[in-house]
Amino acid sequence: MLVLTRKTGQEIIIDGDIRVTVTSIGDGRVKIGISAPPHIKVDRAEVAARIAAEEADADVLVCG
User: Distance (Å, rounded) from C-alpha 61 to C-alpha 59?
Assistant: First the structure.
């Protein structure tokens, strides 16, 4: 894992076309903005886990 220190307004660039921008810092939390090409899916971890579980359930129904 790469750990970086950034200030509000500063960015991290991933693979040349994904930008992670620190939009605000305060009250024990950091807000970030993510810009990525349309073919790159960006989800929060809990959303990605829910989608994966729903897809696994659908596969069981189709295959089972």
Answer: 5
Q: What is the pTM of this model?
A: 0.76
Tokens standing for residue 23? 């939009």
Q: Number of structural domains, the chain?
A: 1
Q: Which residues contact 44 (CB under 8 A, 6 or more apart)?
A: none
Residue numbers of the domain that contains 26: 10-59
Residue 33: closest CA among 51, 19, 47, 43: 19
Per-residue model confidence as pLDDT tens digits over 7-30: 999 999 999 999 999 999 999 999
